[in-house]
Design a protein that fits this description.
Blueprint: H1 2-7, H2 64-71, H3 85-104, E1 114-118, H4 124-130, E2 137-141, H5 145-155, E3 165-168, E4 180-186, H6 195-203, E5 206-217, H7 221-234, H8 251-259, E6 265-276, E7 280-283, E8 292-299
Parallel strand pairs: 1-2, 1-4, 2-3, 4-5
Antiparallel strand pairs: 5-8, 6-7, 6-8
Length: 301
């Protein structure tokens, strides 16, 4: 009973006690038995740790199956004890990470004033960002009209959000929007098709000196055991099909992707996080090699 109660608090996370199962991630070539036979993968199986699959510019990164899955969870998005509980618990760390990036920016004039939240879901981060005194405007987009309906209804509970928060039912490929201080993409990149084009498109909305901020999951045995085997198959605390382990992207793969574009991108910051039962989400140095992590990269031009 005790173990079951603990796991009900987890959801889409990597649990600290399971870190002992794996002390090293998969080799840089990305190969694993779970990837065999797949015609399309988020990461190619070359020997380069920096290769992320691409697609034609006219295509969309939106996966309709993923959209349908998360739309089915819309009604419970704002339930702090429901399936989205891990997102509610992680939200303070999102702000902590962004704050650390602002402090690290050379010549920073202060905290960010403009945000673009991509794949905003029910608006957990978007609402909290819009409430910050320094925020002038937060635009949040999601391709699911069902989820955005929930987000808009919840935002109406706080009239002060009106002029600062805007929700748009669109994909990043179809968006027309000015550049902002911070583009955020939390728990999204592991759910899109062909992340290379998706990352390129995200970068188009970051002003020079601004940050692209993401959170995702490393592709390791630890993350497979916790997010796929335990959470989905054994305890069933996360709806079946929430995660495709083959789409998980390792920290070194993301880092290498941006390092190959030095004319656009500069400093990289990473923060590994784990969920400790009874304590919540905690930063643990080096845990980005095992499971959940935040990733920030600064736009230079």
């Amino acid at each position: 009973m005790m173990r079951s109660a603990i796991f009900r608090r987890l959801g889409s996370i990597v649990l600290f006690p399971f870190a002992s199962l794996v002390i090293h991630p998969f080799p840089g070539n990305g190969k694993s038995p779970l990837q065999k036979g797949k015609k399309k993968r988020a990461i190619t199986t070359t020997t380069s740790p920096t290769s992320i699959q691409t697609r034609s510019h006219t295509s969309s990164s939106v996966n309709e199956t993923e959209i349908s899955h998360f739309s089915s969870l819309a009604a419970s998005w704002w339930d702090p004890h429901g399936p989205s509980r891990p997102l509610h618990l992680m939200n303070p760390l999102r702000h902590d990470f962004i704050r650390s990036l602002s402090l690290a920016s050379p010549g920073s004039s202060g905290p960010p004033s403009t945000y673009l939240d991509v794949g905003c879901g029910g608006g957990i981060f978007a609402e909290s960002a819009a409430r910050l005194p320094s925020t002038v405007k937060c635009t949040a987009i999601d391709p699911s009209s069902t989820i955005l309906q929930i987000a808009r209804q919840h935002a109406k509970k706080d009239p002060s959000l009106g002029p600062k928060l805007e929700y748009l039912n669109t994909s990043i490929e179809r968006l027309s929007h000015p550049k902002v201080d911070v583009v955020t993409c939390f728990e999204v990149v592991e759910h899109v098709d062909y992340p290379s084009e998706f990352l390129d498109r995200l970068g188009e909305f970051v002003r020079p000196g601004g940050w692209l901020v993401m959170s995702t999951i490393a592709r390791t045995w630890t993350s497979w055991v916790t997010t796929n085997l335990v959470a989905e198959d054994i305890l069933r605390i996360v709806p079946k099909g929430t995660h495709d382990w083959n789409k998980y992207i390792n920290e070194d793969e993301l880092r290498g992707y941006f390092e190959q574009r030095p004319e656009k991108w500069g400093e990289v910051k990473v923060m590994g996080v784990v969920f400790v039962p009874g304590c919540g989400w905690k930063e643990v140095r080096g845990s980005e090699k095992l499971g959940n992590y935040f990733f920030g990269v600064r736009r230079v031009a």
